[in-house]
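Posting for a labmate who doesn't have an account.
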Amino acid sequence: MSGNLPIPVVHLGKSKKDCSFDKKVVYLIVLQTIKYNEQSDTKL
């Protein structure tokens, strides 16, 4: 499963540029998850 990832996690850990980019992506994913959770909570 891990071999099918578009971007290897090892490269994200070693490269500083990829690391900062990875943090931005994770931050956006967290925001989207929070928004989705809020929407699902309001529906319930």
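Reply:
Got it, the structure tokens are right above this. DSSP finds two helices and no strands in the chain.
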